[in-house]
Amino acid sequence: MEMPPPLMGQIQDLLSQLNNRQLKANLLIESIGVWKYYPIANPEALASQLWSFSRTSMIQICNISSLYDTVLSRAQQDAHESQKLAKVSGSLYEEANAVCAEAACWSDLGRYKQCLSLSIRAQSLLNLCGMASGDANFGIMSTQAEVHKCKSEYSEAWTIQTKILQISTNQSAYGHATALLGLAEIAVSLGVLKYDVQRNIDLARSKSTTLNLKSWIICCDTILADLYLREKDLTAAKRLFKKCLKLATEHSEIKLFCLEQLGNAGS
Q1: Can you give the pLDDT at residue 31?
Q2: Is 39 exposed, middle or buried (0-12, 13-18, 19+ CB in 10 A)?
Q3: Integer Cα distance of 221 and 115 in angstroms
């Protein structure tokens, strides 16, 4: 009697039969998580499947270093091709979204010059659509601020987030919350006074709670813990980082940050 293949080996066959996108994404993540024991025969094909899921799922998968460049490079290529199709169809908005996607890929790959260049192009397209004050543009600006923060250009990042805050006040609750969170994070690195940073964190937490953005609420605590670390209150910093680590079960980026900072705190 022929033995059936190992359970993990059956996952690819099962994926084609599933209609539940979240379950499908979770199965992909788990199958990749055991790649050392069940080698991936075709990483390129897998990368194509991953691009159809949310960016959050991709981030979870990209934490596996062996697939990081493969997944993001394929995503960048797909976004570039999508731009061509949108251009042919004459859809400026779809083209702008595709440019945004490619810019995000370049940012995640550490290619900041390409990211910033594409961000400017995407903003030009949104201006032509009359959508310069929408969530799409706020997303682009947040990406630009994140790039400057990664380059330790905190003043530039602060300027961009301040601009988002001003523009979004009466136009986008989501954009407003994004800016508040970004400003709170940058304030720690800029050496802003402790009580001013705490005020920014409280504002970001309040807005995130109103919008039910659970991961952002956790981020508020990680920023507060980072502030404690800056102020040399190691006991409070460690306690809060450990709390965030437990809460961020589905957020790999937050978990990695907490682990790194716990190391910096001497834990």
Answers
A1: 57
A2: exposed
A3: 29
Mean pLDDT of 64-74: 63
**Range in 26-35, 71-80, 173-182, 212-221 with the lowest mean pLDDT:** 26-35
Q: Report d(CA 201, CA 138) in Å as an integer.
A: 20
pLDDT tens profile 109-167: 889 999 999 999 999 998 888 887 778 888 899 999 999 999 999 999 999 999 999 98
Q: Residue 46 in contact with residue 28, Cβ under 8 Å?
A: yes
How far, in Å, CA of 170 to CA of 168, rounded? 6
Residue 141 tokens read as 């600006």
If you average pLDDT over residues 79-99, what whole number do you get? 87
**Residue from 94, 92, 137, 93 nearest 119 by CA:** 137
* Cα–Cα distance measured from residue 125 to residue 131, given in angstroms and rounded to the nearest whole number: 9
- In the chain, what are the domain boundaries? 20-132
For the record, the structure tokens of 221 come out as 């605590």
Tokens, residue 171: 């136009």
